[in-house]
Amino acid sequence: MKKIILIALQLSITSFAFSQDLLTKKTGEDIKAKVLEVTQDEVKYKKYDSQSGPTYSIKKSDLILVRYQDGTKDIFNENVNEKTNNSDDEMVKQGRIDANSYYKGKNSGASWTGASTVLFSPLIGAIPAIICSSNEPSDENLNYKSKELMKNEAYSSSYKEQAHKIKKRKIWTSFGIGSGAWLLLLVLLGSSGG
Asked: Looking at the structure, do residues 113 and 163 belong to the same domain, yes or no?
């Protein structure tokens, strides 16, 4: 009986997973959709959770692939717009480089994480570390060099992604330092009390 229930559960999960079409953009973003039409240059779709809503379209050059609900796929040739793709690749690289140069992790929460870890314990310090590192840096703290470059989607998304990685690294480094200081404090207090 347990085997039958497990098989039924697995089949229902599998059918749920393929109950929608999935558009995968070159940025890595997935769009849950119901594909209506694939033309020479674009894919027309409705958002899966709003199929009575408006019809959207996206350029094929912005997509890697479409996974249909029946399990089949359309993979789009990246060489169709080789010049655009190379330009996008350059913008992605430039976004990462600029984030490493200009983003300083201001107001990242690293200081609060380190302080709460030292004052209370690594267990308590993990709470702000998790909360702060899960949030992307706010736009006013990104410190990007050019508003014009941030209008480019490839540049902007790679800059923000790299800034988020830097923010996480600062927070968890601060957590590690705070944990070490907390342990050292415990050792010092333990040795002076005996």
From this structure: yes
